[in-house]
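Lecture 7 notes: from sequence to structure.

We start with a single chain of 427 residues. Read the sequence below before looking at the structure.
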Amino acid sequence: MKRKLIAAIGVAGMLVSIAACGDDDKKDDGAKGGDAKSLTVWLTVDAQKNWPDLVKAADDAIVAKHPGLKISHEYYGWPDKNAKLDAVLATDKAPDVVEMGNTEMLAYSVKGAFAEIDPSKFDNSSAWLDGLKASVTYDGKTYGVPYYAGGRVATWRKDIAAEAGVSATPKTYTELTADLDKIQEKKGDKFSAWYQPSRDWYAAMSYVYDAGGSIAKEDGGKFKANLSSPESLKGLNEYKNILGKYMHGDKTKDEADRPIVYGQGKSALIFGAGWEGGTAATPENDKVGKLADKIENFVMPGPSGKAMPVFLGGSDLAVPVKSKAQALAAEWINAFTGTQGQKGLIAKQNLPNNKTDLAPLKSDPKTAVPATAAESSWFVPMAPGWGQVEKAKVLQDMLQAIGTGKKSVEQAAKDADAAIDKVINTK
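Now the structure, written as tokens:
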């Protein structure tokens, strides 16, 4: 999954058109359109480039049940997808199936863009991964189907660890920090034993959730920011300690170019998406030489004594409320993401959308680390105004203030809570 999920915020322009027909369609629960003659499926280029055979298999399965059905596909890149989707959702030519990044689902669900679906009609829905299930659920209703997942793992340089006398990946947080101390002492203060960009809120919030905190809490149908709670502050203070001890790079940066920096050999450890180490080791990024042979992934241990809870990225599939073929769209989604589809996605080095298929991967050395890491996950608050929080980069700015020392942890968290509370309940 060599792309970054983008929070969906540009849906205002389609509201009037959707509202005009949204209520009746949603009561339908996706049952209409079973006799439609055509189906339009929008997926990202990931499917087009990496598993077109799985797309074809789903097509063939549905056409076999509905002879004469015409299925067409459109593929788009992540950067321009939402603008294209917003434009078409404001017309009567909406596609029948759309792929969404899991952080994109909420804003569209809040605005009534997607049809409600019945989870019981989809394979393994009772075992959907927590982070993906949360992304398709809003106000107690389900508006999408998890497609595949991607967790976060620790990646470090075996050769650098060995230089410092460390021969095995750490299993506990105490071992991790002790190993990093040895590496930092060996390499000097111009080297980052752990390259951790301050503004990387995915990593920082893992510390918050590991400590029992959260970004926000729901009470009586309303959300309230929770970064100033004792638990959240504990996690943020430990995150600050990590930045101070091991991160000797630019503390105003985010994680966007982390694989490139890691490929330059300026750090021993990163904590990011499972694909980042591999991207750092590509010919264009590897300035170390044979980096692929020198890196190793492991499950990041948390200060709590358990595996660090990770943000679970991934994709979902949804049926636009304006689709005229909702029943067929649901059938296609189940053919694509169901039991057989998940086998194909796993074979393409993706994590499955459910715990049942995830379990065997934990015992396979090739997949054990990402599969185990994905078991413990967190997700963003499913609040109507969450998209505005992301747009304003409240968490990133808080973390930069903490990392650079511009604000104390307590003041930065207090200011972030105030900013979050202004918009988190706003539709």
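The two ends are 30 Å apart (CA to CA). Keep this in mind for problem set 3.
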